[in-house]
Amino acid sequence: MKKFILILIWITMSFSGTHYRYENLRHTQNDLFAVSGTDTLTIKGCTLTVNTDIFVNSDGIVNFENDTIILNGNLYAWERAKVRFNNCKILWNGTFVYQYGFVVAGAASMVMDS
To answer: I want to staple 40 with a disulfide (CB 3.0 to 4.6 A). Which of 19, 29, 62, 100 is the partner?
Structure first.
């Protein structure tokens, strides 16, 4: 029997700064995907299909490491947010009529080491 794992990644403002880590998952994310505050999210070695926008703000950090990401939405980073792609494959759904991409503003940064 296969286990179904649902990850709703919705991290709100926190004062302590938590590091969330997911490894080696095959997962489809249909719900809100947001990181903010001083929290860090690391996704490593995963095949992740994201059917929504990704929001990273207010000093939030997202690290993608050795992942295959199928992004059917946009990635928004602002307010000193940090997004890092390390050795990742990023794919967009080419059949959708709206253009997908990255929006980085307000002292946010995005680094791609691939």
So the answer is: 19
Q: How far apart (Å, rounded) are the C-alpha atoms in residues 107 and 114?
A: 23
Side chain identity at residue 56, one-letter code: V
Cβ contacts of residue 2 below 8 Å, gap of 6+? none
d(CA 61, CA 48): 18
Across the strands, what pairs with 23?
A: 44
How far lies 31's CA from each of 8, 52, 54, 101, in Å? 6, 7, 10, 18
Give the C-alpha separation, 82 to 59, whole Å: 7
